[in-house]
Specification:
237 residues; mainly alpha
């Protein structure tokens, strides 16, 4: 999952808590701002009953992020689309191992799902950014550092930039999405995407749009508290 899909359960509440949204974004923010630092469910769980409601909300968001990733990455729809995209990328762009088609297919499903959610609810991104802008970036960074007991680098600055730039809006445009993906490729030291890549995106968008409900169909009986997966690729910046 990417930012908007992770935030969706909290955005559907009658009262949106900015610190729950921030917590749901923390693992991906760290993937950009402090890649060696992780904030796992086991780090956040002791703070679920914190006296400070902001800390409890942040912890809920972190735990929900990992729990949702656990079932999402194991879902048939995600596996089917990731595999289909990886095959298409390999066939269309050649056998270059530097592109890592499976990695790119994984990321594409997640980013295109965020765009599909935004298209379904035109006010969703505005509500997301308006709510998360209410969280104090410096407090979030200090609290994540306390949870993880590791340095969080320039997390506070990145959170401010995240709200300012609103890069999730770029996912709706093939060229701008390619630019964001190239940031990911650079971060993980892979070659930039070739010029013909944007032409591959429209049918992939269609495939994700047709599978939104299936992608978001959370299985019953999962143990959210047991989720400890750290499988997210680095998110765009």
């Amino acid at each position: 999952m990417n930012y908007l899909a992770h935030a969706l359960p909290f955005l559907e509440k009658a009262r949106i808590d900015p610190y729950e949204l921030a917590g749901a974004a923390v693992p991906d923010w760290l993937g950009v701002a402090a890649r060696r630092t992780k904030c796992r469910s086991r780090d956040a769980r002791p703070h679920l009953e914190a006296d400070d409601p902001r800390a409890a909300a942040l912890a809920r968001g972190v735990c929900r992020h990992h729990a949702d990733d656990a079932w999402f990455h194991d879902s048939p729809a995600f596996g089917r689309l990731s595999l289909a995209f990886a095959k298409e990328l390999r066939e269309s762009l050649g056998e270059s191992t530097s592109l890592r088609p499976w990695f790119l297919g994984h990321v594409l499903v997640e980013l295109l799902l965020d765009d599909a959610l935004s298209a379904r609810q035109p006010d969703l991104l505005d509500r997301y950014y308006a709510a998360i802008a209410q969280a104090d970036p410096a407090w979030v960074a200090a609290t994540v550092e306390r949870f993880s007991r590791r340095d969080v680098g320039r997390l506070a600055e990145f959170v401010e930039r995240f709200v300012e730039v609103r890069f999730l809006e770029d996912y709706a445009h093939d060229e701008r999405l390619t630019y964001r993906l190239n940031q990911v490729m650079s971060r993980v030291r892979l070659d930039p995407l070739p010029a013909e890549f944007p032409a591959l995106l429209p049918p992939m968008r269609g495939a994700v749009n047709a599978s939104v409900d299936e992608l978001l169909a959370e299985p019953t009986g999962i143990d959210k508290k047991a989720a400890e997966l750290e499988t997210d690729p680095p998110g765009p910046a």
